Amino acid sequence: MTTWWNDLSFLQQVFYIIAIPSTLVLILQMILVLFGMDSHDFDVDASVDTDVNIGDIASFKFFSIQGLVAFFTMFGWTGVIVSGTKIGWLLIIVISTCVGSISMFLIALLLFGMNKLQSSGTFDYKEAIGSNGKVYIPIPKKREGLGKVHLSVFSRMIEADAVTDYEEDIKTGTYIRIIDVIDNNVMLVEKSND
User: Fold this and answer.
1) Are β-strands 156-164 and 186-191 bridged in parallel, bridged antiparallel, or unpaired?
2) Which of 64, 144, 69 is nearest to 108 (CA)?
3) What is the rounded distance in angstroms from the CA atom of residue 10 to the CA atom of residue 55?
4) 180 Ramachandran zone, left/alpha/beta (phi>0; psi -120 to 50)
5) Residues of 117-155 as b/e, b for ≥16 C-beta within 10 angstroms?
6) Cα–Cα distance, 141 to 6 (Å, whole number)
7) CA quadruple 123, 124, 127, 128: dihedral positive or negative?
8) pLDDT over 70 for what percent of the chain?
9) Which residues is 152 bridged to in the sheet?
10) Which residues contact 74 (CB under 8 A, 6 or more apart)?
11) What distance in Å separates the CA atoms of residue 43 and residue 193, rounded to the nearest whole number?
């Protein structure tokens, strides 16, 4: 083993020193993910000042523990492979850095996609404005009490409390349209022609 190590060039030794520990960490990360013990609390945030939708950008983390491990793993193994050729050491480092950066970007893209799949499970009732629904429990006139409506928002069926400004009650089975959201997720409705 020591003969093999001593036969390597200094650059190859450096790449092995980077590749082997980072590969072990990568394997450990994969094992933790398989058993559901991964943690995203160690991600390093990078702020981005732009006019693009910050809600989407904020969850894209280029620099994360997973991304850095992927960078060093690919950087190291690419360096090990390429250093066996007759390419100059500067080009070897450039190629290794490019491959490592691409792998870090792909990991960031993967984590971003997985983050987009997560849902908090809460529903923003403001998204229902303009939606049509049907009265489930009669809605008293002039906001004199609460009724209930069923509606579909983004293919999600919800039941919500509702009031109206109409001069008469809106009966069960009547089609309605949501015109506003008031007082802690209570829908203000009007009759709909649909």
Assistant:
1) parallel
2) 64
3) 46
4) beta
5) eeeeeeeebeebeebbbebbebbbeeeeeebbbebebee
6) 89
7) positive
8) 82
9) 157
10) 96, 99, 100, 102, 103
11) 51
Q: Can you read off the two tokens belonging to residue 184?
A: 């802690």
**Sequence-distant (≥ 6) Cβ neighbours of residue 180 within 8 angstroms:** 129, 187, 188
Q: Is 149 helix (H, G, I), strand (E, B) or coil?
A: strand
CA distance linking residue 99 with residue 70, whole number of Å: 10
3-state secondary structure (DSSP) of residue 157: strand
DSSP tag of 125: G
pLDDT digits (tens, 9 = 90+) for 8-59: 889 999 999 999 999 999 899 888 877 876 554 444 444 433 344 444 444 4
Which amino acid, 57?
A: I
DSSP state of 123: -
The pair phi, psi for residue 75, each rounded to 5°, is -60, -50
| Residue bearing tokens 């058993």 | 35
Contact 144, 169 (CB under 8 A): no
Residue 69: which of 97, 37, 100 has the closest Cα? 100
Residue 143 φ/ψ region, left for φ over 0, alpha for ψ in the -120 to 50 degree band, beta for the rest: left
In this prediction, residue 176 has a pLDDT band, given cuts at 50, 70 and 90, of: very high
